[in-house]
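Hi F.,

I've been meaning to write this up properly since the lab meeting, where we talked about keeping a consistent format for the predictions we share between groups. The idea is simple: the sequence comes first, exactly as it goes in, then the structure tokens exactly as they come out, then a line or two of notes. No screenshots and no reformatting. I'm using this chain as the first example so we have something concrete to point to.
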Amino acid sequence: MEKEKSLTLEELLRPCVKFRNAGITEQMEKIAEEFLEVDEASEKYVVSPSDFKKKHLAMEIADVIVSCVTYLHNLGYDLAGRKKIYKEIYKKNDIRDYYKDYRKGE
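Output, unedited:
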């Protein structure tokens, strides 16, 4: 059995090439569509939790993240630019103590 390789940061922050030329309206529609799928999956999970529904919800959340990464890319933020944005957000959130418990090791 082949060992599954870990994803690199670059792979985790990779935009979808299918939407690389999407305009602002089209990109926002895609994000809204993906968010609705999160909402639906979340409702199903809350009503009747299961491992399958939990994984489905997680995948829908990841789809929103990928759609947002793609939008950042389309705005002109390459990988280095997206990393800078993330660092700024993490710094801002750290100042607000959003990661307080996480820093303690969850």
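Notes:
The mean pLDDT is 88.
The helical segments are 9-12, 24-47, 51-74, 79-95, 100-103.

If this format works for you, I'll send the rest the same way.

G.
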